[in-house]
Amino acid sequence: MPALKYKRVLLKLSGEALMGRGDYGIDPDVLSWLAREVIEVQKAGAQVGLVIGGGNIFRGAGLQAKGMDRVTGDHMGMLATVMNALAMQDALERLGAYARTMSALKINEVCEDYIRRRAIRHLEKGRIAIFAAGTGNPFFTTDSAAALRAIEVGAELLLKATKVDGIYEADPKKVPEARRFEQLSYEEVIARNLQVMDTAAFALCRDQNLPIRIYDMMQPGALMRILRGEPIGTLVHAG
Ligand code: UDP
Q: 40, 92, 189, 234: which has the highest count of C-beta atoms within 10 A?
């Protein structure tokens, strides 16, 4: 078995990833499938932090479009990420792993507060740390939370799991001959106006030189292969 190329990583899953084929909420089968993929790399010696979005339940911008105050909507969105984090924690624990949900908003009866040094300790101890409630601030997304937490805990790679197997020069559903990029520099992503993650999150990764790998989360074993150094999906880095 080849050694792991990355020792500590941060995996960002969108809330929508948990829906499976549904259009709301959480599909328990998808959840335990994802949990298995994470446990596989944790057992191989990787330290894994997770950030899960909330788009399968609420998004502040969507609630605002229906007339709600934006900040209240964002608070609901952040609480939605806590629900997803608890569901993932449960799925991981049912499979025998150790996991800790740490929230950017204080909900002490439900989970731990996010404290950076404690988070690092969890990772060192082989616990899967799930960072919930985004950044704790409205007007941000969980992409920003993923970038922030990855940098704070010293992750070597930010993995963004999507439904597409990387970044393409055009939407592969509309342009079947569109080519997938193996790798891109931060500058190329900006120059080509490619949507990797939201601007604030991307700027943080670029400024702190954090590599991002975009890959298809439903490809079995992909996470493990990436951690072993295989070039799956698209890598965005300093170039
Ligand atoms: N959110 C927020 N601040 C954050 C992270 C998230 O206000 O730091 C809110 C925001 O309303 C967002 C929602 O939580 O729409 C769910 O997160 P996101 O849209 O990133 O989830 P995903 O698209 O990854 O499922």
A: 92
